[in-house]
Amino acid sequence: MSVDTQSKDLVLSIKGLTVDYPVHNGHFRAVDDVSFDVPRGHTVAIVGEPAAASPRWPVPSCAC
User: Fold this and answer.
1) Strand ranges inside 24-55, DSSP E
2) What pLDDT does 33 receive?
């Protein structure tokens, strides 16, 4: 399947997203260099543990 991902047709574009969380002995890398595009008319779902980092995805993705 080929999807046209010209910038004018993208609803969301994430490039190189990395998310670290501080822990007692340094940091925990929850997301490492994730990139994806969501073209207009397509759907993406981010699935994770209810108490895990999944609710925090909007914070780094909105800091574009």
Assistant:
1) 26-39
2) 94
